[in-house]
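Quick one before lunch.
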Amino acid sequence: MGRNLLLNMADHGFAVVGFDKDAQKGATLESSASSGTTVKGVTTLAEMVQLLEKPRKMMMLVPAGKPVDDVINDLLPLLEKGDIVIDGGNSHYTDTLRRVTFMEGKGFHFMGVGISGGEQGARTGPSIMPGGDPEAYPFVQPILEAVAAKVGGVPCVAHLGKGAAGHYVKMVHNGIEYAIMQLISETYDLLHRGLGLDNDELHKVYRNWNDGELQSFLVEITRDIFLKVDEKTGNRLVDMILDKAGAKGTGKWTSQDAMDLGVPIPVIDMAVCLRELSAYKDERIQAAALYKNPSSDIPVPQEVFIQQVQDALFFGVIISYAQGLAMLHVASKELDMQIPMQEVVKVWRGGCIIRSSLLEVFFKAFQKNPELPNLLLEGEIAQLLQAKKQNMRNMIIHAIHMGYPVAGLMAALSYFDAYRSEKMPTNLIQAQRDYFGAHTYQRIDEPGIFHTEWNK
Ligand code: 6PG
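Model of the 6-phosphogluconic acid complex:
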């Protein structure tokens, strides 16, 4: 990823230096450079620092955690006041905040920058989410704008707020990424195990979806995955992959932080849980032997069911974005990050893993109201959800009836149904709390705090 980003910068006319202790990596960097560009690979930080123009602009792309602190410590004796150090990895925002304070105390600038798009995106145009130090941003802005993905000529990069805002926005981006991937996997299960579609048929279904309102990077790659042949066996590769999901942690961090903030994001939570459940392969094998397999008795014609699944996915995807963006809205205030929501959505329109044509609709929503607390409150989005609601319900009824797990889709629908409930059954919870713990309650007809001796 680091190499690709450097090559991208070089293609846009910037002279770049890549540091890696492994000389072979530096040689590969130099040999991959386009002719006429200035690209140098070095094996020591001292050489790198010496070659850079001041104020030096240095971006780290190393795994989150200790490796970031190690690089900072190695760099410290080589830096001069005003130098800019950027962490372009997926660091936890609390680490970024600590590093900002530490580096500023020493007279250096430190920025946490989220970068999305994977290796390919880094080469051709990623989505870039810088945050923090506003003084340092103008120095790196032209570079980031040049290399970022473009949508209608507009670069997918913007300064996204104070402190660790860049890494916070990237964390939530990844939470949404987890949610959408979970929902897509549930639709795959229904169509594959449920309907019995083979990989060629699945390819066609996802191709049709990607050609329509579900157009997005994740549906597009799903379409292509079904055609990939395993070189070893000649089978389709997707069928040869073990059903245990990995996770580097950013989805879990999103859920953990949402809990701390008191913002409900159940589709993201469920996506994290289901990746965790997938790891229990041995237990799942035992349980599968104990309980009956799901039936494939779908009570509607195939094309009707596929339409229901498509609409359910569209509905669930909107809810996933709504939850992530609602979380950002609250976090921006609670953590004093001043995140410009409209800019976040603008930056996500291209280059990143969660780019989709829906982002245009969300962009317009935040253009109308930058303080929109939840996408579900916006008229155009309400219409989209209303149009798909019934098919979402129908699909879930069939999935439950047959016994297929659709936890993410169900979480999306239940969130929707609870969010649009003027009256929730939480009055009963308050009564129970007061009954057993004298926790008090508020009344609907009178201000104040009340307690009742329920046993008297
Ligand atoms: C991106 C991705 C990228 C990475 C994830 C994978 O935006 O380019 O989100 O950051 O692929 O960290 O995360 P998991 O390993 O947790 O799935």
